[in-house]
Design goal:
Order of helices and strands: HHHEEHEEHE
Largest sheet: 3 strands, mixed
Strand order of the largest sheet: 3-4-5
Helix content: 40-55%
Radius of gyration: 36 Å
């Protein structure tokens, strides 16, 4: 007579389950789990340039409309106006190398170049773009005025021991700091001032393109 014992299911008899190879599933890091540096896509916002565009369009429309109307008026058999007769006579009498012809061509070329520059450049040169979150998908635009950046760097400079006065000018690519030292060695103050400005630039300004720092210190005159 034989007896058979049914096989117990794991976890139902209170004993330890049979050993199985451990597997670990790594979760792919999401956008907020990146620990390394991410590429900053912040760019300067483009100016609307409404006033220059409206003025240029109005001048071009007025000039082209006046010339077109005069051409049609003369071609239909009417007598030309005084300014049109004078203009055509002057253009027919003067050679291409005339000073007035060259001056008019230079003015027209300069105006055309100015319009091209306005169309291809973003403008708003007094505003600096700030870093935006990586998950902003390019829809967030944050800017800081140069004057505000200069005031923030000036406050950071004035907190350095030994600095009595400080003047800061912030440009697109460069930030110039001129400080007067009331006490301490000027070399030590310059090193501390440079470190403080870099920390303020990194932690408080958060500019997308940090400008190069140029620090100049001198002993204050009593």
């Amino acid at each position: 007579m034989t007896s058979s014992t049914p096989h117990a299911l794991p976890g139902h008899d209170g004993g330890p389950p049979p050993s199985q190879p451990a597997t670990t599933h790594a979760r792919a890091p999401g956008p907020a789990q990146h620990s390394g540096p991410t590429e900053d896509r912040s760019r300067r916002p483009w100016s609307a340039r409404r006033i220059p565009a409206c003025l240029a369009a109005a001048l071009i429309v007025l000039a082209a409309g006046a010339l077109l109307f005069e051409v049609v008026w003369v071609r239909t058999g009417h007598r030309a106006t005084a300014w049109w007769a004078t203009l055509t006579a002057e253009l027919a009498a003067r050679p291409l190398g005339n000073l007035w012809i060259l001056a008019g061509a230079a003015v027209a070329a300069a105006l055309g170049l100015w319009l091209v520059i306005l169309a291809l450049t973003p403008g708003l040169r007094r505003q600096l773009p700030l870093r935006v979150p990586a998950d902003g998908h390019g829809q967030t635009r944050v800017v800081l005025a140069r004057k505000g950046a200069a005031l923030l760097l000036r406050d950071a400079a004035m907190r350095v021991p030994g600095v009595s006065t400080a003047r800061v000018r912030v440009h697109r690519r460069r930030a110039t700091v001129r400080a007067s030292v009331g006490f301490r060695d000027t070399a030590d103050v310059k090193d501390d001032l440079t470190d403080a400005l870099r920390r303020a630039e990194r932690d408080q300004l958060a500019l997308a393109r940090p400008p190069r720092l140029r620090v100049r210190v001198r002993r204050s005159r009593k």
